[in-house]
Amino acid sequence: MTTDYQTGRKALGARLSELRAEAGLDGRSLAARLGWPPSKVSKLQNGRQTPSAEDLAAWADAVGRPDVLPELKGRAAGLESTYRSWRRQLVAGHRARQEQAIAETAVTTLTRAVEVVRVPGLLQTADYARDVFQAAAEFREADSDIEGSVRARLRRQEALYDPDKRFEFLIHEAALHTRTSAPAVQAAQLDRLMSVIGLPGIELGIVPFGAQLRRAPGHAFWIYDRRLVIVETIGTEMWLADTDSIETYERAWEWLQGSAVTGVQARRLLGRVRASLGPV
Fold it and tell me: Out of 13, 260, 265, 270, which could bridge 205 as a Cys pair, Cβ 3.0 to 4.6 Å?
């Protein structure tokens, strides 16, 4: 399976190959000039190895194009900063990723989140979050400090009460019905959502099943001010900071927001879902 990360690495390799060819060198000649085994040149050109900053600097000098080094470094940095493998991120468990989330929230004034199949982390109860982390750790076969991750997620939620910040959430109704926990935990989570309606600085919108949509919510995403969009997929987490991506996700947000219910209507919808759980 080809991932976006691999595609980007192949594109960088193609650029390196192009620079070599423009210098009138074949792979072996360049390898000899660099003092590298020919196999390393081949792997870099074919996108089978990620070059280090030192590799890129040496390559640029060897082909007589030191002027392209900023471009090459930018391409390489984009690979790591844009497409972040969950396997790499969770080497130290989910807690480290939650600490990152705390840092991003701390420097953000307006946080906007769309969730399709689960409750946003900033609004999760401890028990609901614990089940989310446990399921993720089992699925990714990763070690995870579950309790430490839960504590970090709850610590991040302290930002909800900062008067200088604003939070806007859009949750598809499917997320309210998705049974990821025991009924009692699901019920408490729904109660938590009802409790935040009307709080200063927080707007909770729910997109009902029967709403007319200009565009269906394909996946969850978070927008941090107008500087960063984070999108989670099964294999990677994308951190998008380019203007085109931010504008695209803002448009998706606006289209979905137009189909959401808030205030009393949102509370009634939550109440109906809560009643469907029966006695707990």
Answer: 260
Write the pLDDT tens digit of every residue in 58-95: 999 999 999 989 888 877 776 655 666 666 666 656 77
CATH, residue 10: 1.10.260.40
First to last CA, the chain: 44
Q: How big is the chain by its Cα radius of gyration, in Å?
A: 23
Q: Please report which residue ranges of 23-125 form alpha helices under DSSP H.
A: 27-34, 38-45, 53-62, 69-82, 86-89, 94-106
- The DSSP bridge partners found for residue 221 are 114, 231
**What pLDDT, on the 0 to 100 scale, is given for residue 218?**
85
Q: What is the pLDDT of residue 1?
A: 35
Per-residue pLDDT, 93 = 67
* Dihedrals phi, psi of 51, to nearest 5 degrees: -75, 145
Let me know whether 59 and 113 are in one domain. Answer: no
Of the candidates 132, 178, 131, the residue with the CA atom closest to the CA atom of residue 276: 178
- Cα 255 to Cα 116: distance, rounded to the nearest angstrom: 15
Nearest-10 crossing angle of helices 27-34, 38-45: 120
SS3 state at 222: strand
Do 117 and 194 lie in one domain? The reply is yes
Provide the whole-model pTM. 0.72
pLDDT at position 196: 97
Residues 6 or more apart in contact with residue 200 via CB below 8 angstroms: 163
Sites in the chain below the pLDDT cut of 70? 1-6, 78-93, 143
Q: Which domain holds residue 214?
A: 90-276
In angstroms, the CA 91 to CA 89 distance is 6
